[in-house]
Write the structure tokens for this entry.
Amino acid sequence: MFLQTACGATPPIWDPITYETKPRESTSENTQGTYSFSEMTTKQTDTSLEITSSSLTETTNPLYFTEIEEPTVKAYAEVISEHKTIKVTFVSDHPLSVYLNDNAYIKGYQGEYIDKGYLNYPMESPLVCYIPIGYFYAIHGEFKVTKYASVEPMRYFYETVKVEANMEEAFSAESITVSDPFLDAALKAEFGGTYSERDLSQISSVQIYYYRTTQGEFPSEPSITLTYYDKRLGAYDNATSVYRYSDFFDEDWTGAFPEETLLDMQCFPLLQLVEFRQSRSKTTPSEVSFPEGYLDRILVKEYTADDFSE
């Protein structure tokens, strides 16, 4: 005998086939009878297999499929200008997790590394993150947050939270001018005539090649490449803009790499990379040597949540 149950409101499907049973032994006579399946189950009930109505309710309507209200989340930003960092606090009445490219930005991060990636655990609100401003630019202030309506069973919702930060607290909007004429011309072209520290804070790297070659199929000239944190910016798909010396000047460049260019890099508050090259021969450019400690002064230092006390 098989026990069959039906899900939801669908009635059980009864087997219409008639089954023939073995002869029963009796004190009077042996009688061979036939019974339908419904008759057999009615007459020969095994009480040990009975299922209560409450058990059926739990089986056919598990908690996971009940409707639940989606949690809400709010975010607040505080600019820590001396560390070039933004403190972002996520507040909800439910546990949260947030996706970042480095979990070290999350205060008290909880999760584990599984199959070439991190599995984030639900964390209690408020959830605090310390985000480098450059990374904040890169994701343009949009954070992918997971909101956990329940943990057992796991019920969760996704939301992209847009966070606004006041960059006036970190970088000045007052117009500035760099010393190198070529770099100044490129920045004016890039930012529409004038530029400020806040404009230059969007730049992650500067590459300046101060050499000219006339040999070969593709002669080259001095060039400047600016790369943005935000991939949506720049003149090209990879968030870069490139300027040639001939874009601004008619005469050829014949001098050495200008020393003032090195000092101009102090105007870029969030540089992650600088690369300078000059020509020591007609065809082979070489990297410009930096003074001792130069890169430590020019390149931005990145902080993590452990660098801040609550």
In short: DSSP finds seven helices and 15 strands in the chain. Residues 181-191 form the longest helix (11 residues).
